Amino acid sequence: MRTQVGIIGAGPAGLLLSHLLHLRGIESVVLEARGREQIESTIRAGVLEPGTVKLLMDAGVGTRLAAEGIVHHGFELAFDGKRRRIDLTELVGESITVYAQHEVLKDLVAARLAANGALYFNVSATAITDVDTDSPLIRFTHDGVEQTLQCDFVIGCDGSQGVSRAAIPAALRQDYERVFPFGWFGILVEAPPSSDELIYARHDRGFALVSTRSPNVQRMYFQCDPKDSVDHWSDDRIWSEMHARVDSSEGHHIVEGRIFQKNIVGMRSFVSTKMQHGRLFLAGDAAHIVPPTGAKGLNLAASDVRVLASSLEAFYREGREDLLERYSETALKRIWRAEHFSYWMTRMMHRLEDASAFEQRLQVAELEHVTTSRSASAAFAENYAGVVQV
Ligand code: RFL
Ligand code: PHB
Question: What's the total number of domains in the chain?
Answer without folding.
Answer: 1
